[in-house]
Amino acid sequence: MARAVARAQAGAADADLLALERQLGDMLGLKVAVTHKGQGAASCYIIRASISST
Questions:
Q1: Does the pLDDT of residue 15 top 50, yes or no?
Q2: Closest among 32, 31, 39, 45 to 13, alpha carbons compared
Q3: How far is the C-alpha of 24 from the C-alpha of 18, rounded, in Å?
Q4: H or E stretch including 37?
Q5: Burial of 48 (0-12, 13-18, 19+ CB in 10 A)
Q6: How far apart are CA 9 and CA 36, in angstroms?
Q7: How far apart are CA 27 and CA 52, in angstroms?
Q8: Using CA atoms, how far apart are residues 47 and 27, in angstroms rounded to an integer?
Q9: Is the pLDDT of residue 1 over 70?
Q10: Rounded to a whole number, what is the distance in angstroms from the first to the last CA of the chain?
Q11: Which is more confidently placed, 5 or 19?
């Protein structure tokens, strides 16, 4: 039973992280990846298409 609850909570967290990635990406116009590290920690990556300056 505890495993089922943990999986359900992880699914909700994954859905929340995907929504956050989508919202940040839309606001910034860039690709965003957020990874959950557990215990309230996370990493956020902002990805540019190229590094050339114009």
A1: yes
A2: 39
A3: 10
A4: strand 31-38
A5: exposed
A6: 13
A7: 22
A8: 13
A9: no
A10: 56
A11: 19
